[in-house]
Amino acid sequence: DDERREAVESGVRETLERFGAIPGVRAAAAAQGVMFDDWSMDTVVRRPGASRALPARLKYVRGAYVQASGGRVISGREPSVSQGDGMSEVLVNRALAARLWPETAGTGERIVVMGRSAPSVVAGVLADAFEIGLDEEPPPTVYIYSGKDLAQRLPVHFLIDGPQLSDHDAANVISATAGGPAVLEVSTVGRRL
């Protein structure tokens, strides 16, 4: 329901602020799925005006996802956190950019995600991340920066780039946030790599 979703969204936002306030934290993010795992939703995407759509993974994120997850933007930039609706700008991985725009890097191009009528601008292209194993090609993926959509899709993963926090300390930060989601896993860049 809307009240629960708003509570989760508020909890995610407050938890990111709490992580960001810890001395030494360089970036904090929340994600519905993270690099090096295969938890995501499937969708289809297309270029505006194109009749053929391509299958892609869809991951909802919030905060400084690229830095907090250990990723690398190879073209353009990570969408700014201040983008309100989360769909005006998106991030795509290299695998998706190469399939949709083989003649360009993909940055600045427009993309339509299934279920949305307005196209989004590709703010940046993320280096491919292996999600299941090193022997499998990374799937085409689009990253949407949206707290509202993230709050509808639990679990929420929190990622930080900074000091090594114990699971206990990180769980205390998260559980101190009113309305925050249940803690399933705490992850740092060092632990994920």
Structure, explained:
26% of the residues lie in helices and 28% in strands. With 193 residues, the chain is an alpha+beta fold. Strands 2-3-8-5-7-6 form a 6-stranded mixed β-barrel. The chain has helices at 2-20, 65-69, 94-100, 147-152, 167-175, 189-192, and strands at residues 27-31, 41-46, 54-63, 73-76, 89-93, 110-113, 120-126, 141-145, 157-161, 186-188. It is built from 6 helices and 10 strands, in the order αβββαββαβββαβαβα. The mean pLDDT is 77. The chain is globular, with a radius of gyration of 16 Å.
What's the order of the H and E elements?
A: HEEEHEEHEEEHEHEH
Low-confidence stretches: none
Question: Within the largest sheet, what's the order of strands?
Answer: 2-3-8-5-7-6
Largest sheet data = 6 strands, mixed, barrel
Radius of gyration: 16 Å
The average pLDDT score comes to: 77
What proportion of the residues is helical, as a percent range?
25-40%
Task: Work out the number of β strands.
Answer: 10
Number of helices: 6
- How far apart the termini lie comes to 36 Å
Shape: globular
Sheet/helix structural class? alpha+beta
Beta-strand percentage?
25-35%
Quick summary:
This protein is of the alpha+beta class and 193 residues long. Helices cover 26% and strands 28% of the residues. It starts with a helix and ends with a helix.
